[in-house]
Amino acid sequence: MRIGELAQRASVSVRALRYYEEQGLLLSTRSPSGQRHYGEPAVDRVQLIQHLYSAGLTSKTIADLLPCVDAKVSTPESRARLTFERDRIDAQIAELTQARDKLDAMIALTGTPASGCAYV
Amino acid sequence: MRIGELAQRASVSVRALRYYEEQGLLLSTRSPSGQRHYGEPAVDRVQLIQHLYSAGLTSKTIADLLPCVDAKVSTPESRARLTFERDRIDAQIAELTQARDKLDAMIALTGTPASGCAYV
DNA sequence: CTGGGACCTGACGTTGACGTCAGGGGCATG
DNA sequence: CATGCCCCTGACGTCAACGTCAGGTCCCAG
């Protein structure tokens, strides 16, 4: 498929896909005229990339780790890195949970009619 | 206390505190020569601001919501906003949890060469 | 009174993941 | 062969939360 279709199917922009390729995260075969073509697995790969981005990994980190996943091999460094990122995400989840509780407290504080609520 | 001490006690940079004031998140009294002075509650307030930032709220959102918390008063809009942000954080936690599980799978896939390698 | 921290106000620099625009080609359809 | 849509490569713009630098002020100890 061409880049437009992949973009639609993976719910990302065409620009993002070109950026992923620029960062070494996504490969494409080129037609003689230079147009990018992708196979079916590209859809899943893009979604994996999106997941890792939304988990707060940078392009460089993803670029370092994806080849290990592709090759299904790991070095001590890549394992340490994966574990490090996993722990970072755990910490971030904890932080978000705490922030959510703070927000709940704010909602309770400002939102209960008993504690003085100004309806407009 | 002056800005340097507040920065230390709240574990943020001096620049960040000036930025918070610029964004309307943090007030200060000024000495005749223009230096900022803060009371004890400023420490907690800065930490609350930090929590909200780390939860992904923007300066503008925080600026909109903090006065409601200060006044312990809410409008239907502010409650909707608080609830919206709370739900957004919940979704983000779910996303992070999913990403963490993906990372765990990657660790399992690449990290145990002895066990069979499943295809993704 | 003199040195040296801590502080002040601009104002430009940084980083990451793209958005967007300019200028030009590819290709199927009428 | 023209038209309309998709594609290409640069390359500059964006946004947020600060970092950093320049040039000047404040204040306390010695």
From TrEMBL, chains A, B:
<protein>
    <submittedName>
        <fullName>DNA-binding transcriptional regulator, MerR family</fullName>
    </submittedName>
</protein>
<dbReference type="InterPro" id="IPR047057">
    <property type="entry name" value="MerR_fam"/>
</dbReference>
<feature type="domain" description="HTH merR-type">
    <location>
        <begin position="1"/>
        <end position="68"/>
    </location>
</feature>
<keyword id="KW-0238">DNA-binding</keyword>
<dbReference type="InterPro" id="IPR009061">
    <property type="entry name" value="DNA-bd_dom_put_sf"/>
</dbReference>
<dbReference type="GO" id="GO:0003700">
    <property type="term" value="F:DNA-binding transcription factor activity"/>
</dbReference>
<dbReference type="GO" id="GO:0003677">
    <property type="term" value="F:DNA binding"/>
</dbReference>
<dbReference type="Pfam" id="PF13411">
    <property type="entry name" value="MerR_1"/>
</dbReference>
<dbReference type="InterPro" id="IPR000551">
    <property type="entry name" value="MerR-type_HTH_dom"/>
</dbReference>
